[in-house]
Amino acid sequence: MNYFGGAPIPNFIGSPANLEYLNLSKAGFGGTIPHQLGNLSNLLYLHLSSNFHDYLDLNSLDVDNLGCCLEHLNLRWNHFHGNIPLAIGNLKKLQYLDLSVNSFSGDIPEIVCSLKSLRSLHLSENNISRGIPETVGNLKSLEYLVLSNNNISGEIPKTIESPTKLWSLGLSDNNIGGQMPGTLGNLGELRSLDLSNNVINGQTPGTLGNLGELRSLYLSNNVINEQTPESRKSSSLGRVIFG
Q: Would you write out the chain's pLDDT as a tens digit for each of its 243 residues?
């Protein structure tokens, strides 16, 4: 594995017009992301995780030309800060977005919820605040939604039922309150539900018993009344942790 000791990503990397796959993860690059990467109009896969060790923002990267093809964007484990760039909403073919383990703040932009092809959204371990937007229900193809370890508040939106292909929902370690919406029981493909370490109250809805594929349910460190046997009817449920 090459390690570039904080050197900037060379501008010429934005030159190969037919490049489809670019993985610069763990290479030790520093500085800002060169805007020339935005010239890679045929790029399908861009992986830049675990590189940048100074506080930066992403505004230097022009993603307009990437919107026609890019399906996979991984910027995990850097020190990007500021708001999540609205330009990500231009990546209409994006299926996988990982911005976790950074220092993004502000809210989840509603334009991210317009990415109809998105299957995996990972935003854990940032400083994201405010609530989960109701428009998360627009992500009909979503299979993985991981927002854990942020400062998200408000309640779980009832529209969470709309991504019916959802396999994993991770909302742990936030400030989410209110009661669990009964619409969670409509996520028939759900395997893992982690709501631990929040301020959710009330009873678990009986509709959770409809989740026939559920394997793991984590509800510890909330204010939940666990005396709801209807929510444990899933025959495949391997682990229930109320705490």
A: 566 666 778 888 888 989 999 998 887 777 777 888 888 999 999 998 877 655 555 666 777 778 889 999 999 998 888 899 888 999 999 999 999 999 999 999 999 999 999 999 999 999 999 999 999 999 999 999 999 999 999 999 999 999 999 999 999 999 999 999 999 999 999 999 999 999 999 999 999 999 999 999 999 999 998 654 454 555 455 566 665
State how far the Cα of 159 lies from the Cα of 141, in Å rounded to an integer. Answer: 14
Q: What is the pTM of this model?
A: 0.90
- Domains, the chain, in order of start with CATH, read 11-241 (3.80.10.10)
222 Ramachandran zone, left/alpha/beta (phi>0; psi -120 to 50):
beta
Q: How far is 149 from 106, CA to CA, in rounded Å?
A: 14
CB-based contact 193:184 (threshold 8 Å) = yes
66 φ, ψ to 5°?
Answer: -80, -15
Q: Name beta bridge partners: 155.
A: 177
Residue 26 burial (10 A CB sphere; 0-12, 13-18, 19+): middle
